[in-house]
Specification:
Blueprint: H1 2-24, E1 33-37, H2 41-47, H3 49-52, H4 57-65, H5 68-77, E2 82-89, H6 97-117, E3 121-125, H7 133-140, E4 151-158, H8 160-177, H9 182-188, H10 191-195, E5 208-211, E6 230-233, H11 243-254
Parallel strand pairs: 1-2, 1-5, 2-4, 3-4, 5-6
Helix pairs in contact: 1-11, 2-4, 4-6
């Protein structure tokens, strides 16, 4: 009874709180690129098994997938330009075949739903060669459909170390194709050169990285690109992540003094 009353009071107060947060935000300070580690789906399923109709990981992953379109709408309102969503890590391949098969199916459906909206350019970033052929083909076929609006990176089969390794391999291959030997390639290598071969090449580095579920680590997410990023850790599981949580993250970012090594 007490819990129901408390939730009812919260439902009345949160719209007012959100309004005050929006009024206080300076959208000129909005990060251009926001990266999100969508964590906590499985724990959400265990905590909400009755309402979800089950507590399997798939129940949680579906609930997490259902949050994505809503979240991207919040990003549009806040004038964010690029969003990177970490949907599947290279480490996730260690999970059971049953969970992984279900998760890959949910990811495939999610990508289809995002593309079908026609609202955003969807780009897959990750080691697609590790994925089943049907999903790798689907992701490889994604093409830009707009010249404006939000750019959405779906990080699938993504690992920060793997990305850097792939970038170095691509750099060396390019040098070889240009007729340069290993000594010349070593002489020419630089951070700027490697950055040209990252999965996110051509996009700004993320100024803000958000991780849900209370875990306070990045796990290799955008390892290279996050050198100057600000981090925000939220206690809510990803399916529970609310607009007010996102606004709090933006408020926290806006109040930080970004020296960027100066």
């Amino acid at each position: 009874m007490y819990r129901s009353i408390r939730n009812f009071i919260k439902s009345l107060l949160y719209p007012i709180y959100e309004y005050r947060l929006v009024r206080a935000l300076d959208f000129s300070q909005t990060p251009h690129h926001v990266g999100v580690i969508l964590d906590g789906n499985r724990r959400f399923a265990k905590a909400n098994s009755e309402s979800l109709g089950g507590s399997t990981p798939a129940h949680g992953h579906r609930a997490g997938a259902n949050k994505i379109v809503e979240f991207l709408g919040w990003c549009e309102e806040a004038e964010v330009k690029v969003v990177t969503l970490w949907l599947l890590s290279t480490d996730n391949f260690k999970r059971t075949d049953e969970e992984l098969t279900a998760l890959l199916g949910i990811i495939g459906n999610t990508v289809d739903e995002l593309a079908a909206t026609g609202r955003w350019n969807i780009k897959a970033v990750g080691a697609l060669d590790l994925l089943p052929e049907w999903l790798a083909t689907k992701l490889s076929a994604l093409k830009p459909i707009r010249s404006d609006g939000l750019e959405v990176n779906v990080a699938i089969s993504y690992g920060g170390r793997r990305e850097i390794v792939d970038a170095v391999k691509s750099y060396l291959t390019s040098e070889k194709n240009d007729g340069h030997d290993l000594a010349a390639a070593a002489e020419n290598i630089s951070a700027d050169e490697i950055a040209k071969y990252l999965y996110t090449a051509g996009q700004p580095d993320p100024e803000l990285l958000i991780r849900t579920s209370g875990e306070q680590r990045l796990g290799g997410f955008l390892l290279w690109q996050s050198a100057q990023s600000e981090y925000y850790f939220c206690e809510a599981y990803w399916p529970d992540f609310r607009r007010v949580d996102f606004l709090r993250a933006l408020r926290s970012y806006a109040t930080r003094h970004r020296r960027l090594g100066k």
